[in-house]
Write a structure and sequence with these properties.
Blueprint: E1 4-7, E2 10-18, E3 25-30, E4 33-37, H1 46-59, E5 66-70, E6 76-81, H2 86-98
Parallel strand pairs: 2-4
Antiparallel strand pairs: 1-2, 2-6, 3-4, 5-6
């Protein structure tokens, strides 16, 4: 299960991003860290933008509520979700894992 922490009025969790993948998606979880693949290259912040767009769509949130709190230039990043409870984000991530893939 992805480890989601409450930090004031925001929730945060860690992701491992694989840029320049042949397809985009959430591919699983390892040691409490969500694993993502994005097709964008890690150039000029494109992979970071793709990561935030993918997470916003998956969590049904606006991109403006998400930001990379740490790891701007690394594959391992901490994502902060403004005005969200850890419990709500944890439930949405669990729902993603249980939802069948198309």
């Amino acid at each position: 299960m992805v480890l989601v922490r409450q930090e004031g009025d925001a929730a945060s969790f860690r992701v491992h991003v694989q840029p320049k993948s042949s397809h985009e998606g959430i591919v699983g979880e390892t040691d409490g860290i969500l694993k993502l693949r994005v097709t964008a290259p890690p150039v000029e912040g494109r992979a970071n933008e793709a990561c935030l767009r993918l997470l916003a769509k998956a969590l049904d949130l606006s991109v403006s509520r998400l930001r990379i709190a740490s790891g701007q230039h690394a594959r391992l990043k901490t994502i902060r979700v403004a005005a969200a409870s850890a419990q709500t984000i944890r439930a949405k991530l669990l729902d993603l894992r249980e939802r069948p893939r198309r």
